[in-house]
Amino acid sequence: MTNNRQRLIILGMMGQTPFAGVAWQVLHYLEGFRRLGYEVYYVEDTGDWPYDPDQNIITDDCRYTLKYLARVMDWCGMPNRWAYRFRPTGEVFGPAAPRFSNLFERADVLVNVTGTTWLRDEHLSVPVRIYVETDPVLPQIKVALGDQHTIDLLSTHTHHFTFAENLGAPDCEIPLERFYYHATRQPIVLDWWASAGLSSSNGSRKPSADCPFTTIASWRQSGKDIEWNGEIYAWSKHFEFLRFIDLPRRTESKLELALACEDAEAIRLLRSHGWRTVDALALSKDILPYRSYICNSRGEFTVMKPQYFRPRGGSFSDRGACYLAAARPVIIQDTGFSKILPTGLGLFAFRNMEDILVAMEAIESNYEEHRDAALQIATEYFAAEKVLNSMLEQVGL
Description:
By secondary structure, the protein is of the alpha/beta class. It folds into 2 domains: 7-187 and 383-394, 3-Layer(aba) Sandwich (Rossmann fold); 190-382, Glycogen Phosphorylase B (Rossmann fold), CATH 3.40.50. The chain is built from 16 helices and 18 strands. It has helices spanning 20-35, 63-75, 100-105, 138-144, 148-155, 190-199, 238-243, 247-250, 264-272, 280-284, 287-295, 306-309, 318-325, 353-365, 367-382, 384-394; strands at 7-11, 39-44, 51-52, 57-58, 82-85, 92-93, 109-113, 128-133, 159-162, 182-183, 213-218, 226-228, 231-233, 255-260, 276-279, 299-302, 330-333, 347-350. The strands form 4 sheets. Strands 6-5-2-1-7-8-9-10 form an 8-stranded mixed sheet. A 6-stranded parallel sheet has the order 15-14-11-16-17-18, with helices on both faces. The protein has a two-stranded antiparallel ribbon with strand order 3-4. Helix 9 (264-272) links the parallel strand 14 (255-260) and strand 15 (276-279).
């Protein structure tokens, strides 16, 4: 029997950055496109050196990477649908390695998730090449500044999508030059989270009142600050957490941060202000502990990187979408997404401390209503089949 299904290849960096948040982001694309009827493959070909979190080093040994990719791809039911190109030698590993070049020759669609893969000659043979920008602002500013590397990367794609859903609006300060962007958002495979949410905590979808509002984040991030129109747009979240460091003293709700943070003084500071903290790296080495942490939370409270919320691009957190899918209310700093997504029930956008306190009081006054509303938002706006079908329609497929 002839296989008439179209072949779609996802390019990503799950092995290069072997942490659960990155893996979940990609897995939703893989499974979402599979459910739309595509023959889906995952290929990692970033050209970057492997990272081994057990040793916390960049290395020329890809054994950890290969074991991690095998484990993740086996979990999602695609154990034979992946390949990894090793930078030092160019050798390709993984079950799909023997037919690596043929993968692209017969592919109909290529989706470069996070846009971290520089397209090679074999990639360019795919007729539809979709760039998915999950971290907006920096690329647009680089293009406006004439950065040729960024311009060349974007030019190798036939279509461009961004999480900045307010891009081009009058109140959005992100420059828009050369490239046309379609709006998109993180797709979520809802049943992966709904079933886990039901089985967490006390066996119901409602966590106990002792469960804290949580988030999972890196404390300090460097290297991606950028200047535009005389202003510095910072990449690190810690600036915003410090702005709201007194929050635990202003609310009876419990607050916990799962942080990737080696700064002992920062941890002491947070705890002295009433924050609980746990190690984000420990729960992020595998996808299931990460999911369990979200599902055992009362909801999410988090800030956004200044580079996201200051220009009002309208992007929404892929992790926040997972909380919503697990029926966990979300309180998150407004990037402009409040113009696009419904807020005030299950999802709250804040700009100041008063907004946060009002949101927490509302959630605690009728938790079940906000829990149900969170799931409804996930179902209506983030369901993988809806998000990815819209993407395909916008590229003419």
